[in-house]
Design brief:
The complex is a heterodimer of chains A (116) and B (113).
Chain A lengths: L4 E3 L2 E4 L5 E6 L6 E8 L3 E9 L2 E5 L6 E5 L5 E5 L8 E8 L11 E2 L3 E5 L1
Parallel strand pairs in A: 2-11
Antiparallel strand pairs in A: 1-3, 3-8, 4-5, 4-9, 5-6, 7-8, 9-10, 9-11
Chain B lengths: L3 E4 L2 E5 L4 E7 L5 E7 L5 E8 L4 E4 L2 E6 L4 E6 L8 E11 L2 E6 L3 E6 L1
Parallel strand pairs in B: 2-11
Antiparallel strand pairs in B: 1-3, 3-8, 4-5, 4-9, 6-7, 7-8, 9-10, 9-11
The chains are: A mainly beta (116), B mainly beta (113).
Chain lengths: 116, 113
């Protein structure tokens, strides 16, 4: 099985711009979660999508949004970028079913976003 | 504050030695997972231990879970330079918002050849 893929791998944007990141989960996985990783805050949960519905959301401002398509591919969008949004954005998929506890997460390589 | 906290934050050992990392958490959990992350890359799942399990092995990895102390430890035996990475524990639990998975701050392990 192919692993989780994320595009692009690297991105440089300027403050005020918006960005869209893409994630393709492992075939058959319907749960896709997004995380932000920074040296100061560590690994923080952004949101989870399951069957095109957002199931969980972390403590991030509304500038961070996402969606999931019928083929389970997911995108996350950050609008009005701030310097503090510079981070490694990780996507993870799992075979978890709605209502069940989190099991093994399969992570993609991440998208390194730099905001200038 | 985070559900899981690793200790120590950094660990440096010689190749062949054992490495032990600890994770403490605050609320009741369904399971606890350990992940490895090589510099700037995605996380790789190592092992999952359920709340009703006390010990689990996978190759050179040994994980213990003490639910009474709300703590877990990851032991890597006979370490190799390739084990150099950051190690994270993640706790799966349920709260009013539903099922959650929260990662700790990680332990940076350096294995010197």
């Amino acid at each position: 099985k192919a692993g989780v893929t994320q595009t692009p791998r690297y991105l440089i944007k300027t403050r005020g711009q918006q960005v869209t990141l893409s994630c393709s989960p492992i075939s058959g996985h319907r749960s896709v979660s997004w995380y932000q990783q920074t040296p100061g805050q560590g690994l923080q949960f952004l949101f989870e999508y399951f069957s095109e519905t957002q199931r969980n959301k972390g403590n991030f401002p509304g500038r961070f949004s996402g969606r999931q398509f019928s083929n389970s591919r997911s995108e996350m969008n950050v609008s009005t970028l701030e310097l503090g949004d510079s981070a490694l954005y990780l996507c993870a998929s799992s075979s978890r079913l709605a209502g069940m506890s989190y099991n093994e997460q399969f992570f993609g390589p991440g998208t390194r976003l730099t905001v200038l | 504050s985070q559900q899981g906290e690793e200790d120590p934050q950094a660990l440096s050992i010689q190749e062949g030695e054992n490495a032990t990392m600890n994770c403490s958490y605050k609320t009741s959990i369904n399971n606890l997972q350990w992940y490895r992350q090589n510099s700037g890359r995605g996380l790789v799942h190592l092992i999952l231990i359920r709340s009703n399990e006390r010990e689990k092995h996978s190759g050179r990895l040994r994980v213990t879970l003490d639910t009474s102390k709300k703590s877990s430890s990851l032991l890597i035996t006979a370490s190799r330079a390739a084990d150099t990475a950051s190690y994270f524990c993640a706790t799966a639990y349920r709260n009013n918002a539903g099922n959650m998975l929260t990662f700790g701050g990680g332990t940076r392990l350096m294995v010197k050849p």
